[in-house]
What does this fold into?
Amino acid sequence: MRILYLSYGAQSGVVASLAGALRARGADVTVVDAAEGLSYRMGRLKLPSPRPANVRNVLAARRQFSGDWKHFFLCTDLAFGRMSRAAERAVERERPGAVIQAGVLFAPPRAPVPRLLYIDHTYAISKRYTKVDGLPDAGRMSGDYEAAERAAYHAADAVLTMSDFVRRSVIDDYGVDPGRVHVIGAGPNLDPLPGEPAGPPGWPPTVLFVGKDFARKGGPALLEAFRAARGDVPEARLVIVGPPAGGPLPGVTWAGRLGHGEMPALYAAASASAFALPTLREPFGLVFLEAMAFGLPCVGTNVEAVPEIIEDGVTGYVVPPGDAAALSVALRSLLRDREAASRMGRAGWEKVRNHYTWDAVAGRVMEFLA
It folds into this structure.
């Protein structure tokens, strides 16, 4: 089957991973980035179209993405129209037997073939975000933008979601027929998948954090919780990957930004005892799957799709966002009890192997296309 995979960027490796898994199952997949070159062209234009709704949309996008110019450009009415036209041209050029589209930043192309949307979030979820100190407010998009998003969900032949949390939003917030919205999950962007965990973690007990947006990923609460946990486990270490180096803190190593190819060595380190990402907002959480694939028990928060990934007390712990005290209790448990940490890590490894692989996702996609 010839599949056209329409995207708007690499999306944290999702596009390459799913396309590769589909090819491994015999599909002929062509990936087209509908946003290629768009930010540059729009940067030269300086201003959006003069319609008042579009101007309001741009101002909202600036607030929501707070300096992230790529996403600022992609979430405007003007970008929606340009990417939609790019998608139409790709269908005319490739003549696929099916279309998979990442997200709803452009309209599903008109084509007499199955058109599947694959999403990890909705704008309606963003609208319900409450104010969090240190994080930008979610911008309110124009009425035109919201109408276009709704129309995209209804135009697709099926909407495939990474989580049940997002599935419920598509059904409840956008009125899409539940029979057309299906959870197919996601997978860790690791090739090949790691082998079976070796056993209890080594020494010293170490917590790993990975996230570029330190505030949104709950970094400040983690530092507070780790400081408290280290009072009971003085040998404990915390390795922080992603943000620029902070000030010197006892037991804390700021590893800075690392390439994706450098991460497996950190996940597999013999002393790694747990992975902690007490995120405040999280569309899905692929990084949890990567940590679990290496046999690390995970500590996350009960926001959005995270509780679907981490089974509290089974593959790790789920705590309220911003609750440093509860987070400290979870860290103490994993740092002090190496056998429990090993048991939870293995349960997470098995969950990834059995439910969260890109091969499994590709198999579900092929079932829909069949």
